[in-house]
């Protein structure tokens, strides 16, 4: 089994991503993949809020081209948002894009090829015992009863070519959060793992500081909760916390 690394919610901090990957030996100083057969999953939210969203997208796309079997990217709500604003700027996406940290410099630089790439991103993956996703939400189950079916449903929704309503629904579902906390959280996590397989949900999206109720600058690493069924990896970089690259295996 290859070692598995995860990182999430880059939010435009492309240099932090580069530095973290470099420290782990996954890339060299010229953005070349040096990770061999190790696996890297980026759990969404490359763009918005921070300084260089397009730089983060360019870096992960380059690594994916160099090592397509090793480097994987899941869709976060900000990928759906970027796509929605690009394709349907006059729709509701036009009202929520900027308040959610959208930058014109990122949007202007998106190519047609980037749009097609964003459109076909999977929303979930299972790697050995780990069930990987962007959001700490059980809305994913509304799209199907297996990881493959859920990804296929979302892809078909995003390639339907309508007025943006289907894309809006995907975006809205991906903004849900905190389904694995509180008195019912452990059961929700257990039900999701039962339905989709795996022993541990790994997510970004909801920053660890908000889950621990402490400032992001005091966050030091990923946390396990819901009796160990769930791991949160978003250190809250845009909120003054660390960008965490976490080795799961
Ligand atoms: Mn998110």
From TrEMBL:
<dbReference type="Pfam" id="PF00149">
    <property type="entry name" value="Metallophos"/>
</dbReference>
<dbReference type="InterPro" id="IPR029052">
    <property type="entry name" value="Metallo-depent_PP-like"/>
</dbReference>
<dbReference type="GO" id="GO:0016787">
    <property type="term" value="F:hydrolase activity"/>
</dbReference>
<feature type="domain" description="Calcineurin-like phosphoesterase">
    <location>
        <begin position="4"/>
        <end position="206"/>
    </location>
</feature>
<dbReference type="InterPro" id="IPR004843">
    <property type="entry name" value="Calcineurin-like_PHP"/>
</dbReference>
<protein>
    <submittedName>
        <fullName>Serine/threonine protein phosphatase</fullName>
    </submittedName>
</protein>
